[in-house]
């Protein structure tokens, strides 16, 4: 390939913008032509991308809603566990009081006093 065919190939892809003080062609600046930057997508391709993005957006929205619902459920369950723990402590305390009361009644009653069988036989 000689120098002239190389310049012709460059001219088909790039736009030549000469500088004011440039007199020879060897120091010219070449810029890509706007049409050659990116291939144009067809409308069908763009519609497919839009549909894909819409599906992804709907899936993300569904997942976010599901996560929020699970968070609310977890909060409700956590509050319920706290309430049950509190009720459990209250009932344990009441059981201790009742147990002590029953012991006091039993010790005060003659029915529950221990009897010495050896002393009665003598």
TrEMBL record:
Coiled-coil residue spans: 60-94
Membrane topology: Peripheral membrane protein
Swiss-Prot/TrEMBL keywords: Coiled coil, Cytoplasm, Golgi apparatus, Membrane
Subcellular location field: Cytoplasm, Cytosol; Golgi apparatus membrane; Golgi apparatus, trans-Golgi network
Pfam family, one: DUF2205
Chief site of localization: cytoplasm
Role: Positive regulator of amino acid starvation-induced autophagy.
UniProt record similarity statement: Belongs to the SCOC family.
Protein name: Short coiled-coil protein
The organism's taxonomic lineage, starting at the top: Eukaryota, Metazoa, Chordata, Craniata, Vertebrata
